[in-house]
């Protein structure tokens, strides 16, 4: 099993690269928008190998948490490497974790190849596997002025919503409403309530 590959970037194409290591070129499927150096420069990718009937495929990720999300998605029924790669290409790990924590299908259904049923299955099956980015960090119990913590938590919540594709105005409004329903400084709960505010009415 390949844990990672470090070598020189030899080829860059749409959705894949070739990394040369001691004269051997490894072709890696990578997420779209992966930041890359110039040809000939050193790169390192965390890797996962998928064995298929028609051969082996290696997937590479510049961020380890991105690969963790990819592997979690592969455990979801009906989600293969192609769809999992599309999800991590479209959503950064923080955004995916926020969507799962808030039970929000909206970011997922925007991913090419992911329908509503698949998105709902992803949310259901990853609920206990992907922890929210702020889980375990209870700002309301940490030291420091409560007012300062509250303001910082609100700004973090707004920034998280912006990363999911919401506009500045709607994100701010949702956070303001959420802050009236949860403890000051609790970022994870603010985000969860804000996502509920932003969810379309049924």
Automatic annotation (TrEMBL):
<keyword id="KW-0238">DNA-binding</keyword>
<keyword id="KW-0067">ATP-binding</keyword>
<dbReference type="InterPro" id="IPR000085">
    <property type="entry name" value="RuvA"/>
</dbReference>
<dbReference type="GO" id="GO:0006281">
    <property type="term" value="P:DNA repair"/>
</dbReference>
<dbReference type="InterPro" id="IPR010994">
    <property type="entry name" value="RuvA_2-like"/>
</dbReference>
<dbReference type="GO" id="GO:0006310">
    <property type="term" value="P:DNA recombination"/>
</dbReference>
<dbReference type="Pfam" id="PF14520">
    <property type="entry name" value="HHH_5"/>
</dbReference>
<dbReference type="InterPro" id="IPR013849">
    <property type="entry name" value="DNA_helicase_Holl-junc_RuvA_I"/>
</dbReference>
<dbReference type="InterPro" id="IPR012340">
    <property type="entry name" value="NA-bd_OB-fold"/>
</dbReference>
<keyword id="KW-0378">Hydrolase</keyword>
<feature type="domain" description="Helix-hairpin-helix DNA-binding motif class 1">
    <location>
        <begin position="106"/>
        <end position="125"/>
    </location>
</feature>
<dbReference type="Pfam" id="PF01330">
    <property type="entry name" value="RuvA_N"/>
</dbReference>
<protein>
    <recommendedName>
        <fullName>Holliday junction branch migration complex subunit RuvA</fullName>
    </recommendedName>
</protein>
<dbReference type="InterPro" id="IPR003583">
    <property type="entry name" value="Hlx-hairpin-Hlx_DNA-bd_motif"/>
</dbReference>
<dbReference type="InterPro" id="IPR011114">
    <property type="entry name" value="RuvA_C"/>
</dbReference>
<keyword id="KW-0227">DNA damage</keyword>
<keyword id="KW-0547">Nucleotide-binding</keyword>
<keyword id="KW-0233">DNA recombination</keyword>
<dbReference type="InterPro" id="IPR036267">
    <property type="entry name" value="RuvA_C_sf"/>
</dbReference>
<dbReference type="GO" id="GO:0048476">
    <property type="term" value="C:Holliday junction resolvase complex"/>
</dbReference>
<dbReference type="GO" id="GO:0005737">
    <property type="term" value="C:cytoplasm"/>
</dbReference>
<dbReference type="GO" id="GO:0005524">
    <property type="term" value="F:ATP binding"/>
</dbReference>
<keyword id="KW-0347">Helicase</keyword>
<dbReference type="GO" id="GO:0009379">
    <property type="term" value="C:Holliday junction helicase complex"/>
</dbReference>
<dbReference type="Pfam" id="PF07499">
    <property type="entry name" value="RuvA_C"/>
</dbReference>
<feature type="region of interest" description="Domain III">
    <location>
        <begin position="150"/>
        <end position="202"/>
    </location>
</feature>
<keyword id="KW-0963">Cytoplasm</keyword>
<comment type="function">
    <text>The RuvA-RuvB-RuvC complex processes Holliday junction (HJ) DNA during genetic recombination and DNA repair, while the RuvA-RuvB complex plays an important role in the rescue of blocked DNA replication forks via replication fork reversal (RFR). RuvA specifically binds to HJ cruciform DNA, conferring on it an open structure. The RuvB hexamer acts as an ATP-dependent pump, pulling dsDNA into and through the RuvAB complex. HJ branch migration allows RuvC to scan DNA until it finds its consensus sequence, where it cleaves and resolves the cruciform DNA.</text>
</comment>
<comment type="similarity">
    <text>Belongs to the RuvA family.</text>
</comment>
<keyword id="KW-0234">DNA repair</keyword>
<dbReference type="GO" id="GO:0009378">
    <property type="term" value="F:four-way junction helicase activity"/>
</dbReference>
<comment type="subunit">
    <text>Homotetramer. Forms an RuvA(8)-RuvB(12)-Holliday junction (HJ) complex. HJ DNA is sandwiched between 2 RuvA tetramers; dsDNA enters through RuvA and exits via RuvB. An RuvB hexamer assembles on each DNA strand where it exits the tetramer. Each RuvB hexamer is contacted by two RuvA subunits (via domain III) on 2 adjacent RuvB subunits; this complex drives branch migration. In the full resolvosome a probable DNA-RuvA(4)-RuvB(12)-RuvC(2) complex forms which resolves the HJ.</text>
</comment>
<feature type="domain" description="Helix-hairpin-helix DNA-binding motif class 1">
    <location>
        <begin position="71"/>
        <end position="90"/>
    </location>
</feature>
<dbReference type="GO" id="GO:0000400">
    <property type="term" value="F:four-way junction DNA binding"/>
</dbReference>
């Amino acid at each position: 099993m390949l844990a990672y590959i470090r070598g020189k970037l030899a080829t860059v194409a749409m959705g894949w690269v070739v990394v040369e290591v001691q004269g051997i070129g490894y072709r890696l499927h990578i997420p779209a928008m992966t930041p890359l150096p110039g040809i000939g420069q050193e790169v390192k990718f965390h890797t996962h190998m998928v064995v298929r009937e028609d051969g082996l495929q290696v997937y590479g990720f510049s961020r380890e948490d991105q690969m963790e999300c990819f592997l979690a998605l592969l455990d979801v029924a009906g989600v293969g490497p192609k769809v999992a790669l599309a999800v991590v290409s479209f959503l950064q790990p923080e955004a995916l974790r926020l969507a799962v924590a808030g039970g929000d299908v909206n970011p997922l259904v925007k991913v090419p190849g992911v329908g509503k049923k698949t998105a709902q299955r992803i949310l259901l099956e990853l609920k206990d596997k992907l922890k929210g980015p702020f889980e375990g960090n209870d700002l309301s119990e940490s030291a420091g002025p409560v007012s300062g913590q509250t303001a910082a938590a609100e700004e973090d919540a707004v920034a998280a919503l912006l990363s999911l594709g919401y506009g500045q105005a709607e994100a701010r409004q949702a956070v303001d409403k959420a802050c009236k329903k949860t403890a000051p400084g609790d970022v994870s709960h603010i985000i969860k309530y804000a996502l509920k505010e932003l969810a379309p009415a049924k």
